[in-house]
Amino acid sequence: MTDTTAFDWRSFLLRWSEEWADSLAADDDTRSEDDEAARRARRLGFPPASEERIAAMEQRLGRRMPPSYREFLEVSDGWRHAGGFVWLLAGTEDARWHNDESGLGDLFDEYLDEDAEPEERQEADLWRRGLQLDVESDATYVLMDPDDVDEDGEWAVYTWASWRAAPPERHANFRTFMRDMHREFHCLRANPGDGEPAFVNDTTRRLDAQVEAARLEALRGGWEQAGKALDEAKEYGRPRAAGLGDQIRRLLGETYLVSFEGVAADPRYARELLPLLVAEHAAHSYRDDSTLKFSLRGADDELVSMAYVLLDEMRSGTYRYTAAGPFGEAVVRARELARWGDTDAAWRTLIDAVPRWEPLGPDHLAPLGWVADPVLGPLLTPERGRELLSTPRGGQTGEAPGATAGLDPGDLAWLAEPDPGNNRTSYRFVLVEGVEPEELPGRLTDGAATVLNDPMTSWDAHSSSLRGKREFSSYDDRALMAVGRAGTGWSFAFDGRPAPFDRRRFVSPAAGASAGTRAVVVWSDLRAAHGERCFHLSVARDGIEQYAFTYADGEIGRSGEIPRALDPSLFFGERADGAEAERSLLEAVAGEFGVRLPRHAIVNGRLHTFVTRSWTRPPGDGEAYMVLRFHETAPMWEGSEPAPEEGPESA
């Protein structure tokens, strides 16, 4: 519904005229005589149209004009320079039905198919029914649509220019269109060129004061109110508004068209904003690296060089965010927590330090560079972004927000929940008591490689493990496992992409991992789409397996004295569905040992990884197996023979 508040056309058009006149250089000899006369008169409009002229126009066109256009004509019978690309807007004499004079209706029809939506057909027909208001323009059309009418009788206005490569833009009514064109005028004049006067007027002064008030409000935690004020100022092209508003949007998880305009090229903010721009570029492998400079328009050579150094660090995963003061100290502690999977504690460490954070300058609203850090970045969610933005900081005071809920459920049962892509149907993990995560490779490998890989996402770690690999064996099951802390006094190694479970040749790593302590091994494949469903649990202490059971193919094999809470008969009866038992089993394991696995870190975070020794025994005498070796081959001409050792081979 149209805003029915009375609109003062006279003062609005007068203010626009004066702003336009003051934005022009007095000695510009390229200006037309009409424009020079308008500048001297400080008037973009024309004398008002009488009621008789408006009535005659309506009789000529066969329709009564919508209210806001009529009100405009009563003040000015036409308009010069509506925005930047319509040089003359029609009054009572020049408004006319377009009747597809441009042929654009037929052109738009060509792009419609039988599945076209009604809105698309309506858009194509606009060129046949619209009332054309542009008289002189830069290939820009302005049409009022008599079929797009609201309850107040207002017609929507559509603008379209071929050089914009976009569908027609809709404005709710003529008044909205004119206000949008006034904003467009401001955007185009906000940064005067050489020889042009400074663009300063009552509107810019009001908006600049609004931007500064919004900055302080944002630092007090009032980010929603601040965001609205900055958005309004951005629509008028005010220099600081976009850069400040983008900082709010980025912490809310938005990345599209977030460029920190006006501040990204400022060296004062480089360590906070530059990593975000570079990380976004690095996340899109199809982008040519030369396009990174586009995001840094106006930056000096030193800043551009810094950006390309950061780009190398982002791609290699070696970028580390640092900050000064108490917040910087919290960053160090938070990274240590996050890299071992305790993302909830890492977040609380960061957020508790935000009140003591200080901005790098007057256009800095919040700590941001940590979002590009490969270990800290996954801590951010839209809810957490709102919590940070709601926290008073930078020397301002205000009401502290309530804490956001943690992302980790604090148990193991979440593993039984289907993930969005239903990809996590099987997994295996090792829990070791009383050791640090970095000690796990020494317990689960043959000792040849006990160094952890740098933190990576599960996908990146898996891809990296396959890169350059040329040999694959059907009997060698070395697991790529992410490591971290599994609650008080426990560490974990987790594999979310295990090979199929082979109960005949499976060897539990529990005994080897339990020297001087306890170790627990769980392997679940109860939701497998193909093959047998299985679940294995084994517990060892001081290098000796204490008890174990394996459920597979409807049968249970057990050894040792299994605690009552873990007795497989409680979970796998004659009619029991293995998938239904999974959650109960995981809850029982968590309760028996007081352990948990960090869901957010495993699913969305970056953890250290390593490759274990094989989880299967070597093949025995007479057991068949296969080894595939791949070699790079040169292109061969038809009829030629491959050289020895080329191509895949099996043993």
TrEMBL record:
Transmembrane annotation, as ranges: none
Gene3D superfamilies xrefs: SMI1/KNR4-like
Signal peptide feature range: none
Region (Disordered): 385-407
Lineage top rank: taxon: Bacteria
InterPro entries per the UniProt record, alphabetical: Knr4/Smi1-like_dom, Knr4/Smi1-like_sf
Domain annotation Knr4/Smi1-like: ranges: 48-180
Stated name of the protein: SMI1/KNR4 family protein
Organism: Streptomyces sp. SID7499
